[in-house]
Amino acid sequence: MAEMEEQVKPISCLHQEEDSEEEPKLKYERLSNGVSEILQSDAASCMTVHDKFLALGTHFGKVFLLDIQGNATQKYDVSSVKINQISLDESGENVGICSEDGKVQVFGLYTREGFHESFDCPVKVCFRPCPPCNFFYHLAKLLLYERNWLNRWKTVVLHEGEGTITNVKWRVNLIAWANNLGVKIYDFSTKQRITNVLRDNASLRPDMYPCSLCWKDDTTLIVGWGTSIKICTVKERNPTEMRDLPNRYVEIVSAFETEFFICGLAPLADQLVTLFFDEEDRARPRLDIIQPLPESCEEISSDALSVRFYQDNECRDYRLEHSEGESLFYIISPKDIVVAKERDQDDHIDWLLEKKKYEEALMAAEISFKNIKRHDVQKIGMAYINHLVENRDYDAAARKCQKVLGKNMELWENEVYRFKTIGQLKAISQYLPRGDLRLRPAIYEMILHDFLKSDYEGFATLIREWPGELYNNMAIVQAVNDHLKKDPTNSTLLTTLAELYTYDQRYDRALEIYLRLRHKDVYQLIHKHNLFSSIEDKIVLLMEFDKEKAVDMLLDNEDKISIDKVVVELDGRPELLHVYLHKLFKRDHHKGQKYHERQIGLYAEYDRPNLLPFLRDSTHCPLEKALEICQQRNFVEETVFLLSRMGNCKRALQMIMEELEDVDKAIEFAKEQDDAELWEDLISYSIDKPPFITGLLNNIGTHVDPILLIKRIKEGMEIPNLRDSLVKILHDYNLQILLREGCKKILVADSLSLLKKMHRTQMRGVRVDEGNICESCHSTILPSDMAQPFSVVVFHCRHMFHKECLPSSGTIPGLQFCNICSAKRRGPGSGILEMKK
């Protein structure tokens, strides 16, 4: 629970417990200025609130009109006794005042029109909230005053006979009043009383614990009496249920008991603001925000208010008034008036800062920067940074600098010097501005020097990440060289020095360092800055570092470093020369053709697996030289290929059979050459070698008649797997027969299908009309006089002739051919139609 501390100045009157982590919902301040002076010599008895001003009544019979800040703007001496009720109409132009001596005054604040009357007991007055300007008094009776057509006041008794009426609230056409028995609701538009809400605790004196009434909206009434609260909703009755009942009825949507006595009620959105009085030891009054539920309530917040002289007050001495337009709540006691209002974003940020929740405060300020008035986003951010530094969370503090300091270079430099003072330049270095907005070069140099003293890796990282324009490059180069004098082999410093040389466009110096270190970025440096002229004498170094990358780079830039130049440089390193020429050959078989002879020896020495593919693909390789090298090194497969390529197939086959002793390769070789004599040599060589005969029987069935081989096998020779080989031969033969039969069936079926198609085509009619001509005489094929007899011959090729224009039938009687198609050798067309008439 929070408590409001006693203060003289009109500042916040709310004090939360130090260990409370729940943010208060309301903030408080005393209504001071003129009010303080009034209450020093008098006491507040009642007050009413308008959007434009306040009206305060006192125990000495005076009424003060106040502005929102509490300054008195007007004073009325109404009576010598206590003012018990002030009522204002909706416009704020008419006021009704009642005092304990029974006097009633109703008058206009800006006109002389007025109404005065005296009763023999205390009364109270209430205005209709909207025109016309009607009002009523209530004591034992509820009297309505309204003007008749003669502009005279007419009195109507709305209710009587149930004791003193203690409170009345009027909303649109609904009037609610409380008497000793309960609360009544009256519909002014239909002149009907809707309902009676009974009082729960009849033992409480109404004058000591008065009923609190409050309209939440045009149809919702909140009733507080003693310790109970009821929320009543006025609803329209279904026309079918009316009969003699009122048009409206009331439903109690929520009813619950509270712990303390109720002094006042006010709505706050869907919640309630309640003013409570605790009888125990005359404790401070409490202002709670509660969430009504159907049969109970949930406490949202609770504040104990230290109003002046609260020890002398009773429940009836407190009142709660509210301004609907601004959500202002006025707590009135005899010697003090406190204003409660909803906390705004500035208040929320104040609370977060007080609780040292700086990150949340900064986030709230950034989101609502247009609405905050007392706070500045950057100042909150600086407070957050200071807090992080105090807690030695330097990395988080430096990270926030980037967001908080923004484009303020002066603040940036101040923070850098502060981090230098506490020895934490490393923390802030990665967050310094490095784009269009920059600090002075001296700032960056100071940080680089600091890293260079203690952290070579961090120094190298900054050099890579920071643009070279941020600092004086020459000064940093000199500093690095000074450190290298103490540690000349430090690879980190050497790499960083190369990068600095690159920034300074001294690429030759950078290249030397990269090559010495064998750094991976050397190739990127060469490409990026076109340093090929600088590496002509460093090709061996590049190849030793990374052969693949070096060769790719050299081949991609043949126009800058020629093939001949590379070969000369690599002449003393044949293993590197081979790598280069091999990749060159893979890219283009003809570019390095003059080095193909040399490549034979290089392949033989360093890369035999690729020798045979090279011999197959190269058309510029001297075969005699290659054969000589292969024979010297006893490369059988390569020698076999060269012999076959040179036309000496018999010698090649002999090497396969004698040296490799591989019948499968021999058969494959014979298949490739497809030479009958070679097959004969293969059979002759294999006839006395049973394993070779088995291999031949298994593989030559489709190339040589197996009978020729079988007949030449000597009787009694044991041949391994002979049965399986013969079965395979027979199976292959059957397979060939089946394939032939299948092909024959397909051929016959296709032939028959095509023949039928041709027959259908030839049986179709051919259109002959005046547009056709004789291909011999070139006159119209049809005579002009169709009554005359004529004869026309039409061939399948669609050429047409007059019969008399055709030559003789030729050697075959009755068979005629199209002269045009026969002359063009497109095959004769036989006559398909002879038209006669």
Automatic annotation (TrEMBL):
Check the record and name the PROSITE patterns matching this protein.
Answer: CHCR, ZF_RING_2
Query: Where is this protein primarily located?
Result: cytoplasm
Known InterPro entries for this protein? Beta-prop_Vps41, Clathrin_H-chain/VPS_repeat, TPR-like_helical_dom_sf, Vps41, Vps41/Vps8, WD40/YVTN_repeat-like_dom_sf, WD40_repeat_dom_sf, Znf_RING
What region holds the RING-type domain?
A: 774-822
One CC-aspect GO term: Golgi apparatus
Q: Which UniProt keywords apply?
A: Autophagy, Cytoplasm, Cytoplasmic vesicle, Endosome, Golgi apparatus, Lysosome, Membrane, Metal-binding, Protein transport, Transport, Zinc, Zinc-finger
Q: Name one GO biological process term.
A: macroautophagy
CHCR repeats span: 551-695
**Membrane topology recorded in Swiss-Prot or TrEMBL:** Peripheral membrane protein
Q: Name one GO molecular function term.
A: zinc ion binding
Disordered: region residues: 1-24
In its keyword annotation, does this UniProt entry include Ion transport? no
What subcellular locations does the record give? Answer: Cytoplasm, Cytosol; Early endosome membrane; Endosome membrane; Late endosome membrane
Q: Which domain of life is it from?
A: Eukaryota
Q: What does this protein do?
A: Plays a role in vesicle-mediated protein trafficking to lysosomal compartments including the endocytic membrane transport pathways.
Give the UniProt family note.
Belongs to the VPS41 family.
Tell me what this protein is called: Vacuolar protein sorting-associated protein 41 homolog
Q: Which organism is it from?
A: Xiphophorus maculatus
